[in-house]
Amino acid sequence: MGSVSTHRYQTTQEVARFGLVGVINTLVDYVLFIAFTVVFSIPLSRVWLAKYPSSAIAMIVSYVLNRRYVFRSRQRNVRAEMLRFFTTTLVGVFVIQNLLTQFFSSEFQFFGDQAYRFLGPLGFTESFTIKTVAFGLATIASLTWNYLTYKYWAFRPTDEDGAQA
Known about the structure:
Layout: H1 2-39, H2 48-70, H3 78-107, H4 110-119, H5 126-154
């Protein structure tokens, strides 16, 4: 029974660290995304032009924090680990998150429009609200993908590290 409790505690701690790193990384991505759309006057129909560079920068931050802090990887084959991490992240960010951000910003604005009904009177613009809601919905989907694939594939212990695969 003790090993189940220990494993549950370790998993809870790992998920908490992943959550903290996710908040930091999402803030980096979000601030850059909004800044790029404002600085370069990017319309809602082309928000992907801001999302790709913000995602690329956030991806580098994510690798360092996840490797060292969340999963505490000791893999000797860092090149293979990086390849797995960036492959996973490319799918999560550049496919799942970017497509959903674009979809909820331009094709299916229902959730953004509903949020704007409440936030508009507080001074938030429609464009800002729609982009923010789209970003949030897409982030939920990519976070789920990222945690599961990082844990079970990208940062998994290998036999050469002296741990069980």
